[in-house]
């Protein structure tokens, strides 16, 4: 019935606007869920770093590996937070476009919305729902048809750039310094493992693997 109506009547602008806003809110909730999970994962990784630094059975490199993973988690969280802001910008511009349509009787394509949508559709966390939103925005005439190369070809890895080493050093310094303030311990080197005769063996490999699995689930 709807398809027959579509052949004779133009889409209802109010219905189109509701649909677009529903999809934007859906994407926003999805990003919020991922950010919350990443914050939980960040807290767990901080705990693993502290445990690793106290164990006599781990090397400083193992502790540093955990710090690298923590930097990756934080970068991904920042990326998703930025994407959420982009979504809110898209919502405001979409609402503005429909308001102008009421006055002028027509709608104009927005290069700004097009740019944000192209960026958001590449996110592995939003691939499916952003495709649906882009289709609705194309139907409404707010964006033009996207090229195939604008769509995601697969999951993008978070590469550690040349500034990562400094960022990892800062992470270790902040976390281990906080531990020293609480315990009064002074490690022989940072981020060297702290010798504690009574400490229990810490299964770093198991903890790190568990953390990596959780991060992989968040990306999937």
From TrEMBL:
Provide the protein name.
Snf7-domain-containing protein
Note down the stretches annotated as region Disordered: 180-201
What's a single GO BP term from this record? vacuolar transport
Biased composition, class Low complexity, residue ranges: 185-196
Q: What is the lineage of its organism?
A: Eukaryota, Fungi, Dikarya, Ascomycota, Pezizomycotina
Native species: Sphaerosporella brunnea
> Which residues lie in coiled coils?
none
Output the InterPro entries linked to this UniProt entry: Snf7_fam (IPR005024)
């Amino acid at each position: 019935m709807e398809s027959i109506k579509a052949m004779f009547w133009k889409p209802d602008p109010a219905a189109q606007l509701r649909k677009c806003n529903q999809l934007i809110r859906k994407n926003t909730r999805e990003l919020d869920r991922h950010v919350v999970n990443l914050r939980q994962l960040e807290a767990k990784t901080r705990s693993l770093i502290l445990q690793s630094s106290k164990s006599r059975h781990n090397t400083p490199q193992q502790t540093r590996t955990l710090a690298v993973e923590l930097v990756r988690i934080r970068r991904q969280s920042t990326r998703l937070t930025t994407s959420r802001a982009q979504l809110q910008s898209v919502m405001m511009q979409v609402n503005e476009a429909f308001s102008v349509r009421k006055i002028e009787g027509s709608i104009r394509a927005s290069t700004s919305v097009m740019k944000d949508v192209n960026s958001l559709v590449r996110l592995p966390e939003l691939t499916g729902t952003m495709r649906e939103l882009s289709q609705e925005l194309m139907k409404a005439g707010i964006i033009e048809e996207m090229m195939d190369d604008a769509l995601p070809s697969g999951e993008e890895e978070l590469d550690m750039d040349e500034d990562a080493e400094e960022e990892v050093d800062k992470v270790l310094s902040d976390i281990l310094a906080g531990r020293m303030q609480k315990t009064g311990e002074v490690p022989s080197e940072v981020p060297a493992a702290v010798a504690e005769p009574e400490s229990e063996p810490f299964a770093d490999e198991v903890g790190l693997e568990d953390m990596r699995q959780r991060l992989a689930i968040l990306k999937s």
